[in-house]
Amino acid sequence: MSEAGMARNSTIRMISTLRKFSKYLLQFKYINDDFMSKVDTPKRAQHLPAVLTTEEVDKLLAMPNTDNKYGIRDRAIFEVMYATGLRVSELVHLKLDDLHLSVGLIQTLGKGNKERIIPIGDVASKWINIYLNHSRSILLKKRRSPFLFLNAHGSGLSRQSIWKKIKKYVSLAGIEKNVTPHTLRHSFATHILENGADLRIVQDLLGHSDISTTQIYTHISNHRLAEVYDKYHPEI
Prior knowledge:
A three-stranded antiparallel sheet has the order 1-2-3, with no helix packed on it. By secondary structure, the protein is mainly alpha-helical. The longest helix is centred in the first third of the chain and has 20 residues, at 8-27. The chain has helices spanning 8-27, 54-61, 69-84, 88-92, 122-134, 136-140, 159-173, 181-194, 199-206, 211-214, 216-232; strands spanning 99-100, 105-109, 115-119. A hairpin with a 5-residue loop joins strand 2 (105-109) and strand 3.
């Protein structure tokens, strides 16, 4: 099947269908042996998520126009996403009470309502403070909201609005990759691993219950390492 050029996942589906057919024939005694019993199912191809380079991250972060309240908010959003690796659902539910900037921490509720505490760097903290001092009160419009990041009506942002903002600024930055809000999470994890972070620490920061989920980022780092090697090694 592989020699016929079939994609790996198509091969897996074909083998699954043949297994069912073989069991059917065996059940109704059309055959005496399961002809698929010795056929191994190949592992599914591992699709590595898109990751931005540090240069691309810098370009993206610089895109919002911080001369206005919306640009300040958007810059703060992107800084927080890249500094913490928050899921977009965690970001939009981030509340003022979740901020502990004096000690450089934020807290969030992840999947399964599991709380975790995440360090937040000085740069992201700085932009949160700029947003709080110069934008949020204007967006709030004398209303009350527990949420950190607000829309033009003083309400919490939706996941869809974050997705649209990412697409807008990625286009302005001229980044030719399929970038979604999750891409900043992928980039956060990949970059800290590349700089020597322990895999277990990254697992805790991302809120993964299973470390095998986190291990995808080691594959990304190895893939990027191979690309750099191929590009720059003088003997290639």
